[in-house]
Amino acid sequence: MPELLGVGVGTGAAVGTAVVLAPAARPPADEPADPGAGPRVREAFAAVAATLRERAEAAGGTTAEVLQATALMAADPGLLAVVDARLAAGAGPATAVDQAVEQFCDVLAASGPYLAERVTDLRDVRDRVVARVLGLPEPGVPQLVEPSVIVARDLAPADTAALDLSLVVGIVTELGGPTSHTAIIAAQFDIPCLVRVAGALGVAAGTPLALDARAGTLVPDPSAELREQVAARRAARLALAAGAGGPGRTADGTTVQLLANVGTLEDAERAAAQDVEGVGLFRTEVLFLDRTSAPTLSEQTDAYARVFAAFGARKVVVRTLDAGADKPLAFVEVAPEENPALGVRGLRTARRHPELLQTQLQALAAAAKQTGTHPWVMAPMVSTPAEAADFARAARAVGLETVGAMVEVPAAALRARQLVAAGLDFVSLGTNDLTQYAMAADRLEGDLADLLDPWQPAVLQLVEATGQVHVPVGVCGEAARDPLLALVLVGLGVRSLSMAPAAVPAVRFALARTHLEACRAMANAALGADSPQQAREFAARFADPDVLAL
Amino acid sequence: MSNPTATRTAVVASRVGLHARPASLFVQAAAATGLPVTIAVGDGDAVDARSILMVMGLGAQHGDQVTLTAEGEGAEAALDQLVTLVETDHDA
């Protein structure tokens, strides 16, 4: 199989065995009747039931009970009887399974809300049985037994939750973009990742794969030489992580804070144990998602206090609720929007629900007081000085002292000076959204991955505009974890970089090898480019060879 | 001589009704008797008690009366055991 190309996330490389997450197989529309298929179909059901029982035994706890009940469904005599009837009536085998399952799904759905999850489980049984009947691999996440490269159309959050990440050395998807869910997970755990790899699902399970996120290549059956190269790069990266630590600074001593992006409380506690100077982006929306009502004041206070306590005297930058668009909240009523990314999201949510922001600010202030810490607080999606002023007033009114705003909208970048004059102590560039809005390209639209590249000179120009202000300027976004781009950002005036903690050592190393003047030269060169590729090339001319090898 | 047929009634004790875990336990016990066992809610149609989908599909709620029927050697003893299961609140 020839080499495949994709869009790299991060700069890592890995070798592992392909584990293919097959999409659910559907019965063919014109499946011919096969009245004699009964025994074969029963065998498929029995095999699926047996697998589920095995998993139940291995799982334990609540998961075991759910799997046990699902196994019962896969061996259900009532279901098998309906499948037989459908087969006798002339349906093809996979079609008969599908029809029988849907019949029971209707019955269950009609029997009340308790059974909604069982409908999901039953359809999962259906997908497994249909796959077996059609002679295709079972869908879903297989149990990993060796260092694996996960190959999927795209990874759903549920898939990622089921993966044993300690055995995942790489992720390859056909769809998704550099800022998709998959890419964010990969960044979080510093797993080399390629998205937009056309034909990836054609890779046979078990094939050895070498993936190189920096080059954007996926090589099936790599040569011994390539394997060695990748292994050497991995070892060099690990050595870096084990090597120099401490605060970030350029070769000539300019300090650049190296901070962590965190979502959940567990993330935060994990990050606190790492060699980072604090948190540059605490995404509080995780507390709000998947809930039917807003978390209460005391619930929020406890959560924030845990994070603040974990970091003690280190800096923690909290972003207030960033909801809307791709992060809808169940308890916030939103009128249907034509373009949610251009709609009521981020700080704009407070226009309709000021109480949500008010409660959150109070909880942050209470948690700060309780832990004796001084969090920095910033609002997402600020576009005008008036919005910045309103937010700053509301935050200071409850006693929060250090107030800032995210720069994610070109208007905010171009008018950063005016935003600051409206009463801000700092600004933080969210490069993912800033790129989306500068290039008018939806973050989740993988087909537009080239436009979503943070090396786009137009995006760098907006960073430059923001970098002129006289308060601290940070970057929290995917851009910060690319060592070369991090140097360009510093050259543009950025003095703190926030990223997945795993990416910090490489960026620290790049900074330590580079003078501020070289960062500025890289930035100027990149600004003069016509494309992201050219910007990278131009910047690389001023870089230390060891940095380029990262 | 025909097989003995036994019939019992029971009141569903589980707060969630015969769903999820209670249904799962009941169906497994019914299958373990090795006898054909049926269950009906009130005056409704009897369904195969060894089918978790049929049993959940009954929508038997907490406090509903169900009728159990079994046929064959040991039917009485089998039903005694199943009645006890239905009348236990497994979520307590």
From TrEMBL, chain A:
InterPro entries: PEP-util_enz_mobile_dom, PEP-utilizing_PTS_enzyme, PEP_util_C, PEP_util_CS, Phosphohistidine_dom_sf, PTS_EI, PTS_EIN, PtsI_HPr-bd_sf. Residues 249-515 form the PEP-utilising enzyme C-terminal domain. Gene3D superfamilies: Phosphoenolpyruvate-binding domains, Phosphohistidine domain, PtsI, HPr-binding domain. The keyword Glycoprotein does not apply. It comes from the Bacteria. Its cofactor is Mg(2+). One of its GO terms (cellular component) is cytoplasm. General (non sugar-specific) component of the phosphoenolpyruvate-dependent sugar phosphotransferase system (sugar PTS). This major carbohydrate active-transport system catalyzes the phosphorylation of incoming sugar substrates concomitantly with their translocation across the cell membrane. Enzyme I transfers the phosphoryl group from phosphoenolpyruvate (PEP) to the phosphoryl carrier protein (HPr). This is Phosphoenolpyruvate-protein phosphotransferase. It comes from Kineococcus rhizosphaerae.
From TrEMBL, chain B:
Residues 5-92 form the HPr domain. Gene3D superfamilies: HPr-like. The keyword Heme does not apply. GO terms for cellular component: cytoplasm. It comes from the Bacteria. Its main location: cytoplasm. Pfam families: PTS-HPr. The keyword Chloroplast does not apply. Keywords: Cytoplasm, Phosphotransferase system. InterPro entries: HPr, HPr-like, HPr-like_sf, PTS_HPr_His_P_site. It is found in: Cytoplasm. GO terms for biological process: phosphoenolpyruvate-dependent sugar phosphotransferase system. General (non sugar-specific) component of the phosphoenolpyruvate-dependent sugar phosphotransferase system (sugar PTS). This major carbohydrate active-transport system catalyzes the phosphorylation of incoming sugar substrates concomitantly with their translocation across the cell membrane. The phosphoryl group from phosphoenolpyruvate (PEP) is transferred to the phosphoryl carrier protein HPr by enzyme I. Phospho-HPr then transfers it to the PTS EIIA domain. NCBIfam families: PTS_HPr_family (TIGR01003). This is Phosphocarrier protein HPr. It comes from Kineococcus rhizosphaerae. The lineage of its organism: Bacteria, Bacillati, Actinomycetota, Actinomycetes, Kineosporiales.
